Model the fold of this input.
Amino acid sequence: MPIVSTFCKKGGVGKTTFIGYLAHYYANQGKTVLVISADDQNSIFKIFGCENFVTANDDDFFENLLIGEKKPEEVVFEVRPGMYLMKTLNTDRLSINLTLKRSEEKKLRALIEDFTNYFDYIFIDFPPSSSRLTEILLDISEKILLVVGLDPLGIDGYKNTIQYFVDCDIEISKISHIIPIGYHPIKITPNKALKDLKILAENYSPDAIIATPIKDKAVIQNLQSEGISVFDNHTMKDKFHQKNLNEISKDLTEVYKSIVL
Ligand SMILES: Nc1ncnc2c1ncn2[C@@H]1O[C@H](COP(=O)(O)OP(=O)(O)OP(=O)(O)O)[C@@H](O)[C@H]1O
Ligand SMILES: [Mg+2]
Done:
């Protein structure tokens, strides 16, 4: 069963949004999906209006599973039918542990591989910072979706990510897709960035398919502040926002259909 990650060394580009909605898209089709938040901000819970799961108890994190304190079913939270999330407590501390103890690293790999028996898809949502945990989880990932913001800093994020893969000896060919985010058909900056990205990608990640760019739509932020997913069948109060919601859910659906995992 596929283990798929969204990654980029640059923060705030849309990694969590993209993988969260991808998971919801599959769950709506009857698949069982787990998203592991390797980011201790656990912001994916907020997107689905389930921040309460993060704060309710302090003994049901991924780390509690790793040290054998909890069973797998006690650290996964169903946030939509068929869609489960797992939270991490402190990725830095976990990272130090993993760096020091080889046996912990093996345990982590075995645990995630065991999850593939229960879920159709396992997705990993990464933080922009890197740690030993990041390296191991990227290594376990079968496919990596590299999310790139369409502006000059976003392009630097692409370059830094490629450099990071080279430095950490992570196979660049694992990047199956590049997901450009923040597109606008007539604005100069995103169009220029997309052109630059295509040239860079041809040279540095030639195996990766560049997905149709995702538009910048403020309606996503409005929905996320209320914990509503674009695939929730939600009705907006006014026509303008409804039109934007329909557009972004249609665009995302097209991109998700094009990404064969
Ligand atoms: N297509 C989009 N249009 C407009 N806003 C978007 C879009 N995708 C994501 N956003 C917004 O961008 C912000 C960052 O998104 P998100 O948290 O998914 O990024 P991230 O890369 O996971 O960030 P971090 O590096 O902190 O984990 C959020 O406010 C989100 O609502
Ligand atoms: Mg994120």
